[in-house]
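Pipeline run #58 for the internal structure catalog. This entry was flagged by the ingest filter as a single-chain record with no existing model, so it goes straight to prediction. Upstream metadata was stripped on purpose; only the residue string is passed forward. Reviewer on rotation: M.T. Logging verbosity set to normal.
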Amino acid sequence: MKTIRIAMWCCLGVLSLGFPSCADKGMGEITDPVYRPEEGEAGSDDEQNLPYRTVEARTNSTSTNWITYTAKTVARLEGFEPSEAPEEGTYGGWKEEQYEATGFFYTKKIGDRWWLIDPEGYPYIHRGMAVFNAGSSGRQQTALREQFGSTAEWARQASNMLKAYGFNGVGAWSNVDQMKALTKPMAYCVIVSPMGEYNGYLKAQGEDFSDATWEGYQHGIARVWDAQFDKYVDNVISSISQYRSDKWLLGYFVDNELPWRNDALDRCFKFPKNSETYKAAENWLKERKGKNSVTISDATDNDRKAFTGYYFETFISKVSAAVRKYDPNHLFLGSKFNQEKHELINSEIMELCGKYQDIISVDHYRMWEPSQTMVRNWVDWSGIPYMIVEFYTKGEDSGLPNQSGAGWNVKTQADRGYFYQNFVIELLRSKGCVGWHWFKYQDNDPEDLSTDESNRDSNKGVVTWDFQPYTDLLDEMKEVNDNTWQLIQYFDK
């Protein structure tokens, strides 16, 4: 049975109708809040006397392997007292301290914690919602017209709803035009995809993609050395110049989940010998080995790791230069990473992130919560902060099949909220995180077969496909969002 509680919202906020993990150890100076094993529900009204919550999750709807995870929540953190946050400025920064006001967002390390600084100079954490869009299916557009009358009115009401639940921005693939048109916008991000568009062009030209990996690239390699790719870099990224003076823009992503694999050198040698990809790999290995002739059998594991840096730098140097050329004012958020067994544990790649971008952006899946060791490595290797720009779980009480997408399945909307709280608490504990984006605003329309398979039938949103809010989820999100500043003080004391 569905356990969705529906809310109506007005232009000033939300009018409620009937609102009713396992942490890493050995973190050195980072101390876990006291863990109290589950002993059943207690009768006390004092939630701090209760154990941490537990949530059952499985990797997808066909798995029979439910695993129980710990979920830390604001109300049950040992010694934490929820309280009112400080007054916020125009852009959502906290008016406790003020630093240089540049008129744009930038990053700053204060003590041992990284922050965003908003255009007025106030410390800021980007609490965002990815894919802030009103859906494109016929049924979704009909629902939009019936409930809001226009896309502009949807954007106004929906952004007010997000603000009421403690969000202060939107992430990739959001309706930027509608956000910019609002009287009171939210800080937004823009994504441009020169490699994605170039790869689409290659497919349209009839090139052989029969052995493409899940990311959709030949032999699992983005063709960063192609001269024609350079033209896409300039043509696609030049479009960002329209945003260069907008104070509400946080920054830019360039491309999504590209294949930065550990065995990239081997994969490049699978291309035809006359291709730019093969020649680049062969010449690199010749120079490294000091030989006039090489084969892939000459490569060692150390060579392979070094080559991943050369491969990634070829891409990131080109796109970073284009971003800085067309908009020197805003943050470069990098290319959205995804693979915890490849680029996310690769020190060569992370060091290059620090050289060319302002923030590391990660789509986080396949783990219940962020690994403190892993995220600390990102910051230590790169010297810059990070954001998690996709994460979610799917609720099996939604009535949707929940067969698509990388996020795990949990049983209820409240469980999704406990997952969110636990995840955010771990991000704030790390001191290197300057924001996070839940994926995503709206559920997929299960009858819309025009979407890609990973966005077809699953409960990813904070609202249903026809715009009804999941208030059990949103209530839990609000609790941790509204206590972000206070949690930072708790972990930093």
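catalog note: Confidence is low (pLDDT under 50) at residues 1-45.
catalog note: The first strand starts at residue 8 and ends at 10.
status: ready for reviewer M.T.
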